[in-house]
Amino acid sequence: MSYPDLESRVESVRERIARAAERSGRSADDVTIVAVTKTHPVEAVLAVRDAGLSEVGENKVQELEAKVEEVGRSAVRWHLIGHLQRNKAKKAVELADLIHSVDSVRLARKLSSEAEAAGQRVEGLIQVNVSGEESKGGVEGEEGIDAIAEICSMPGLRIVGLMTMAPFTEDERVIRSVFAGTRRLREDAASVTGFEPAHLSMGMSNDFEIAVEEGSTLVRLGTILLGERDG
Ligand SMILES: *Cc1c(COP(=O)(O)O)cnc(C)c1O
Question: Could you identify the atom of ligand 1 that is nearest to the CA of residue 101?
Fold first, then answer.
């Protein structure tokens, strides 16, 4: 499988990011594209790298592992973006440069201890659920602040921001309020933890412009770059 129009897709996405950034007085340089290659063959990783994208996201540890084996651990920066089971924490620490889905204190503890055992610190984002949707994982609501503070203090983790997913809806106001709420949570968390995690991982193919307007620094894009997925 090849991705013939990938370069023009990347260019068009970059333009849309630039315009969204401009609308909110931000710099497009502060927004990084994570190309989501899940369910695509390893050729997709090579294609996005050739198109100038060096950050690649996978949502399953097993699939991440298979791709790392084929193209190499340092071929790109690997992002793990999907829910992670604790029994896969060790592998995740080994294979991911940034884990976006630190979605509970229990998982954070496990990741921290695995990282310490490996003599490293793993970079992570705390996944938050500000919409309260039951189907979405993540640290929730106001009790979230305490959980965030606790996770930030774990010795094997280096928390560099928050991640969220907007609900599946056409209603732009709902999407925007989730992204804005996540940005405010980052500010609240900063006043409790004493440091401000820099990153906000927000925005997918259908809502990345709203996310950029609301402060996203990492947009996770699959479909818009690589086309519809089968799986
Ligand atoms: C699949 C996935 C994406 C990319 O979704 P698209 O709509 O294809 O851009 C982003 N984030 C997460 C967590 C995903 O699982």
Answer: 13
